[in-house]
Specification:
2 copies of one chain form a homodimer. Chain A is built from 3 helices and 6 strands. Helix content of chain A is 27%, strand content 45%. In chain A, strands 2-1-6-5-4-3 form a 6-stranded mixed sheet. With 130 residues, the first copy, chain A, is an alpha+beta fold. At the A-B interface, β1, β3, β4, β5 and β6 of A face β1, β3, β4, β5 and β6 of B.
């Protein structure tokens, strides 16, 4: 699934560069982003606003990268399991997180792959709700 | 997402009762089942054959149930994160496993929800490949 891998790399770069319009081109119109447990952003407007807030929270120094990835394909739908690293220089301290994320991609009308579900918390979300 | 919860309960019962034709009614034609790391079953014929082998392996005593579930909805696609318990009386010993599974459901042509990706290993699949 090199095509999806390339899109995720492009998204990581767009987040690092705060190119949120470029980032939104890779999401479906009805996509969902898990901001944190019990806080979901639905649709491109909410997702873009959430990424702007996240960037501000990390003092505009957030750099996501991916480690090992697993792709589970079912026709026009793909589940990506990915080791995600989040690095930041927030508060002048090196800061890093290691997550096991789940992303669902769907093939769009122009055959391009689009992210429909963006959940960087993976299955850790189970039990995190209030 | 009570509708999907009910389907997963029906699937667990069908596995317990070894009603594999009934079980297959809940999968898409191009569904993928993760049998184990590096072993995928694609499509209903392969998935049904895999469930028959799994049932035999567990001496026809496999009973899956679900604990806490999280549903992430994006239009006609839903990612389910689920605490899955597998109990078995294989070899006359009580046997149990606790997994954090990921399932992707899609809305079918008759508005019914169908399982497209069935991965009981969740993000544990990362790093399990050879």
């Amino acid at each position: 699934m090199q095509a999806i891998k390339d899109i995720i790399t492009a998204c990581d770069l767009a987040i690092k560069n705060e190119d949120f319009d470029g980032l939104m081109a890779h999401y479906t119109d009805d996509a969902v982003l898990v901001v944190k447990a019990d806080m979901m952003a639905h649709g491109k407007d909410q997702i873009k606003a959430a990424f702007i807030k996240i960037a501000a929270y990390f003092r505009n120094s957030l750099t996501p990268t991916q480690g090992e990835m697993v792709f589970l394909e079912a026709g026009d739908t793909v589940l990506v399991l990915s080791q995600t690293f989040l690095a930041s220089a927030k508060d002048e301290q090196a800061y890093s997180m290691d997550r096991r994320a789940t992303y669902v991609f769907k093939r769009g009308a122009q055959e391009q792959w689009l992210c429909a579900i963006d959940n960087s918390y993976g299955t850790d979300l189970i039990g995190m709700s209030a």
